[in-house]
Write a structure and sequence with these properties.
This protein is mainly alpha-helical. It has two domains: about 160 residues, no CATH class; about 80 residues, no CATH class. Helices cover about 80% and strands about 0% of the residues. It is built from nine helices and no strands. Helix 4 packs across helix 5, helix 6 runs parallel beside helix 9 and helix 8 crosses helix 9. The protein starts with 12 loop residues before the first helix and ends with a helix. The N terminus is likely disordered.
Length: about 270
């Protein structure tokens, strides 16, 4: 009787690579613990570095506000209302900087944890996803700081001096505002990544996205109204145009995903 089973030595390296890594439950826990400790250590180190960078970072972030105040004939300085207010801001900013500095290493640790369990084509897709996510998030923050924030601050200061009061801007409240604007825009710029995942799991298709654009436009209008901290129609329109552009980038991404999936299905049926 012949043995029809394939011996281990006949398994090619490519087949082993495609099969992905296999670990026991406890090995997964040990690996997860290792990655978490490494990530937390990198954040602590990043926060320590951030402590020395924080004063320059705060100075950079306050420039749009100082300019808006100076342009309207006001004292271009922010205030603190608590004796330890600036110290608390330095500590908070150091932690944020630490998270940013450590984020590449943290993402790399996440990659090391999940990659062994993925197929080769899945590892390529996840690597592209991580790089795209970071790029789009930074693009959203850059758009907010260089384009949106100066206009919004100028508008808000101009409105405030028309009343019987004069603004004294607390630096903590100012940082809450720019955190909302910058992080909000950073997340909104992830729209193509969201559409990528929805397309990957077959939830949406390019035809579906285009056919239902009128509903997407309604959602975009609401988002623009929420993310625009001014009642100015021109600012809101600018947000809407950016969101619409991101939506159609997502449509193009969905088209690529669906096209590749259809090709794989056709190849599988042909074989």
């Amino acid at each position: 009787m012949t043995n029809s089973s394939q011996p281990d030595s006949a398994i090619t390296p490519s087949q082993q690579d495609e099969a992905g890594g296999q670990m026991t439950f406890f090995e997964h826990l040990i690996e997860l613990r290792k990655r978490i400790i490494s990530s937390l250590t990198s954040i602590v180190i990043g926060a320590a570095v951030g402590w020395f960078i924080a004063p320059y970072f705060i100075s950079t972030l306050t420039k749009p506000m100082n300019k808006a105040l100076a342009d309207n004939g006001l004292d271009p300085h922010l205030i603190v209302t608590h004796p330890a207010g600036y110290l608390q801001l330095l500590i908070t900013t150091s932690i944020y900087i630490g998270l940013v500095i450590a984020s590449p290493w943290v993402l790399y640790q996440i990659w090391l944890f999940v990659a062994p369990a993925l197929y080769k084509h899945e590892r390529s897709a996840i690597a592209g996803f991580l790089s795209s996510t970071v790029f789009l998030f930074l693009a959203g923050i850059a758009f907010g700081y260089f384009i949106s924030l100066p206009y919004v601050l100028h508008f808000l200061v101009k409105i405030s001096i028309q009343g019987p009061v004069r603004p004294l801007i607390d630096i903590d409240q100012y940082f809450d505002l720019i955190l909302l604007v910058l992080l909000g825009l950073g997340l909104v710029f992830e729209l193509p990544v969201l559409i990528f995942f929805l397309s990957l799991f077959g939830i949406v298709t390019p035809h579906f996205l285009i056919h239902n654009f009128r509903y997407a436009l309604l959602v975009i209008t609401v988002l623009a109204a929420v993310l625009t901290p001014t009642p100015d129609a021109l600012t809101m329109l600018g947000f809407m145009l950016v969101l619409i552009a991101l939506y159609f980038v997502g449509v193009a991404v969905s088209w690529v995903v669906v096209r590749r999936r259809n090709r794989r299905l056709a190849a599988a049926e042909a074989s």
